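Page 47, continued from p. 46.
Same chain as before, 164 aa.
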Amino acid sequence: MALQNLDISDTLISLGNFLKNDTAIQEFCGDHFNEPLKIYVGDFARKTIPTSADCPYIVITDFAKKEGQNIEFCDYKAVLFVGLSSDETLVSVDDVLMLDVYDLGAKFMTLIEDVFNDKTKRNRPLSRCETSGPYPLDVKHWVGRMDLTWRIYQTLGTTYQEEL
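Result:
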């Protein structure tokens, strides 16, 4: 009997490649950062954690899965950290002031969510996305957090396995 059983590291690499190769994300990074996006997956030792010099970046980590024959849906979760760098310039939108890096980070995380939910790009949209930030880590380094969840029907008795 076949069960849904995704490999954690293969899934992280697949998600990383998907984001890195997305045209809309590439254009956003080129237009706003003049740098290509760096993707990191898995967990890191303190000395390998991305810094402001690595921006823009996405870290995909804390992957968790719930699979088994006694559940109807398999749940998959990952945390994305979105790193941005800026000179922290105040911008005015209709006489309301906001740091440019906050606005840029919010727009970047919205784009990432849109890319994951685009039915022409992914077989499986997000079932939940919880976004917070971006928050300053230091003067020029800001990070936003996205907690992502996918749900896939369990596939009992078949040889079919769905990918995220």
